[in-house]
Amino acid sequence: MGLQPQQQSPPLPPIVSGSAPLPVLDCLPIGPWHWITFTAVPTLAVFAVACSSSSASDYRALTEHLSISGHLEVAAKSFLEGLTLGAYTGGSEIADKIKALSGNASSSAGSATFCTWTALILAAAFVLFQYSAVDSTGKRRSFVGIITLMCAVMFIAGISATALSLLAFREYPLVGTVVFKYQSKSILSTIGTVFSTGNWFIGSVLAVVSLIAPVGKMVMIAAVNYSDDADKKSRLRHYIKVVGKWSMADIMVVSILLAMFAIEGDGFTDSWIGPGTIFYVGYCCLSVWAGQLVMQENHAKGGDQQRAA
Description:
The protein is 71% helix and 8% strand. By secondary structure, it is mostly helical. Helix 2 crosses helix 3 and helix 4 runs antiparallel to helix 9 (275-308).
């Protein structure tokens, strides 16, 4: 019986060691310190959102104790503590609680501010360093991808963190500081409040301008940046140009929020911006830059085609 030729098994695919580089970053110089910076920005943004939320929660609890009813409760417990010669410690306990809440609120607010500005400085340094390395079409594509990712981080933090806070108070003799009202709002909570009050038109406009349009613009920028279909890129650039006309509407949203909290200063009110406003303004700047880059690429290609013709 003759020998039959052995069938050769199909070659096995080569084993790829390590993880493939991200398409966003594979054309730009990325070292260990760049990876640390790239991951530190969203981490700091998360901490800023958490700290601002913690600070707002402590301020709300502190407002309850410093209200008129809170002062009456403190006075009653302190009086009872004096009558019992210290056997009842309710007055001291609530005083210590007020002191702790005040310290925690200030500490959390300071931590949120520190994380916010540190994240913005690191993001700006990282983006500017990468921009200095852009010298080809491929690297420009990766650079736009980096800006888009940073836009997403800034946008999520901007709509989630506390944007504005308002404190209404007054000093009374023998009583001290009496807090009448404290409000702390993020962009998301503000839109939810507008809807809950029945102002559907204003709420819809704010939702479209501050939520839907920014997300759509980021998605279109990413699609143009990584698409090779010329017709699709041309259509998307047109849409980006249309949405770009409303770029200042993002700033308008912040202005509306500021106007909502603006009260004639009479020495008894205090208002301040939170990390949400700062992150949202950072998103607006990066979004405008990314949109200009994808539009400049279109103009550059159009000029090259005219020169070739």
